[in-house]
Write a structure and sequence with these properties.
Immunoglobulin-like, 29 strands, 26% helix, 5 domains, alpha+beta, 8-stranded mixed β-sheet, 6 helices, 7-stranded antiparallel β-sheet
């Protein structure tokens, strides 16, 4: 009986205990950015992983649609569900989800439903899941959170000591290195890991002072510049002055590179062998001079004199700008900015886009005038014949305009004179006409004058009427007298007027 019980216990142990002791497990995690600006996009990754091969799985992501909008995903069906199976089994599976942030606030992305099964025996895996909290803020809030730290934590030169001792608040330092040094290694460490540093690392140097600027840029964009002057000792410096600038002649070849079309050469200056650059076409040598700020420039060295080498590259030309004190027909003296430098030039008019400069072709050694185009920054050979033709054409146009103006003036004078003659003839004809009546000569009368004139006309009209009546009476009287004379003396006489009767009566009495 005891043997039978032991056998049953052994069988149960073989079938039940392994599933309890060796049950497989897995995790579901969400990773991604913690903070996003409103209107921007944020991407999170959902990762399913297990210690055993996974044969199939099904999961679903959850998020608040008031804060986030799903824009893209690689999940099956382009949605929130993740369900699939593997023919060979996988130990991990990743999905990505990209959301657009809709408004400010704090929101959580989670895996609401998740199941997974082992590939070997299709047993269900024991899974644990975690979510992801995302803070949505404004751009102003983001910028306000940026670090303003633009200090250096450390500044040094490998193998040499800088002075004074480094302090983050001190911006100027100096280091002295032995003669013949061609480069130094500047070490600069930012105080904030989010800051960036430029200007450090391997820096080329030459005899004399070399200025090295180390710029620290904080996360918020603010910058601070630390200046390191690396002085390479020159036991016997050759100091020269050109114009108002002080220079030191470079004595190490590595510190001076020849311009294009020049060959490495060597000159002896003040008993020292100086690296130079020679061009057979030009017929002279160049040497390098270093300014006090460390800038290296090329100078023409001839008979102990230094002349600035001004090289300008055109479309297919390389020109050395030369001094020219004269002028050309139709052009006046001016100056032009070419490749960041000012040169003596000639131009046709003020503020012209084209300038004429005098120079030598580096490739051929020929001297000529060149036309510089300020718009396209190009040089071409100056053709004086074209300009002269243009000037002749302009002169012809000017003469035509002058002739036209003179003709127009003469025509205007003739028109005025003819107009005056016509006016005189009209006035003569007007004088020969009959003199107008008095009231016609008066062009403008006062209201009183008009009233008096009207009254005068009425009086004249009455007088005229009385005169006519008087003439009629005289005619009638004469007619009556003629009749009376022809009648017999005894005939009774009738007088129209009493005065006539009295006169006749008086005559008769006499």
């Amino acid at each position: 009986m005891k043997k039978l019980k032991l056998l049953i216990f052994t069988l149960l142990s073989l079938t039940i205990l392994p599933s309890l002791i060796y049950a497989a497990s897995g995790t579901v995690t969400i990773s991604g950015t913690n903070t996003v600006v409103v209107g921007n996009k944020v991407t999170v990754t959902v990762n399913l992983s297990s210690s055993v091969a996974i044969g199939s799985w099904e999961m679903q992501i959850g998020y608040d649609k008031k804060y986030l909008q799903l824009t893209s995903t690689n999940a099956e069906g382009n949605g929130v569900k993740m369900a699939n199976s593997s023919a060979t089994g996988v130990k991990s599976k990743k999905y990505t989800f990209t959301f657009k942030a809709l408004k400010t606030g704090s929101t959580k992305i989670s895996v609401d439903m998740y199941d997974a099964y082992a590939y070997q025996d299709f047993s269900e895996l024991s899974l644990s899941a975690s979510g992801k909290t995302i803070n949505i803020i404004t751009q102003e809030e983001l910028e306000a959170s940026y670090s303003k730290d633009n200090d250096l934590k450390e500044l040094s030169v490998e193998g040499f000591e800088i002075t004074p001792a480094f302090s983050k608040d001190n911006l100027n330092y100096k280091v002295v290195v032995p003669e013949g040094t061609t480069s130094i290694n500047v070490i600069a460490t930012p105080n904030d890991s989010k800051s960036s540093v430029t200007g450090a690392g391997t820096v080329d140097v030459s005899e004399g002072a070399n200025t090295v600027n180390i710029v620290v840029r904080a996360e918020n964009g603010s910058e601070k510049t630390y200046t390191l002057v690396a002085e390479v000792i020159d036991e016997h410096p050759i100091n020269v002055s050109v114009g108002k600038e002080n220079y030191t002649v470079i004595k190490i070849r590595e510190n001076y590179t020849c311009p294009e079309l020049f060959m490495d050469s060597e000159l002896e200056i003040d008993g020292f062998k100086i690296p130079s650059c020679n061009n057979e076409k030009l017929g002279y040598d160049l040497v390098g001079l270093k300014k006090e700020d460390g800038t290296v420039e090329s100078f023409i060295y001839q008979n102990g004199k230094y002349t600035k080498y001004n090289e300008v590259t055109g479309t297919s030309l390389k020109i050395v700008i030369l001094d020219y004190d004269g002028t050309l027909p139709g052009l006046s003296k001016s100056s032009s900015m070419i490749a960041g430098k000012t040169y003596a030039a000639l131009n046709y008019k003020d503020n012209s886009k084209f300038y004429v400069v005098y120079g030598m072709n580096v490739a051929t050694g020929e001297k000529n005038f060149y036309l510089y185009d300020t718009i396209n920054d190009t040089l071409t050979l100056y053709d004086d014949a074209q300009v002269q033709d243009l000037m002749k054409t302009n002169h012809i146009y000017m003469y035509i305009i002058i002739a036209f103006g003179v003709a127009l003036l003469l025509s205007f004078i003739c028109i005025i004179r003819m107009s005056k003659k016509k006016k005189i003839v009209k006035e003569d004809k007007k004088d020969k006409k009959e003199i107008p009546k008095e009231d016609n000569l008066i062009k403008e009368k006062t209201p009183k004058e008009v009233k008096d004139k009207k009254k005068t006309k009425e009086v004249k009209k009455e007088e005229s009427k009385k005169e006519e009546n008087k003439k009629e009476e005289v005619k009638d009287k004469n007619a009556i007298e003629e009749i009376n004379d022809n009648e017999d003396d005894e005939t009774e006489t009738y007088y129209l007027f009493e005065s006539d009767r009295k006169k006749a009566h008086k005559k008769k009495q006499n």
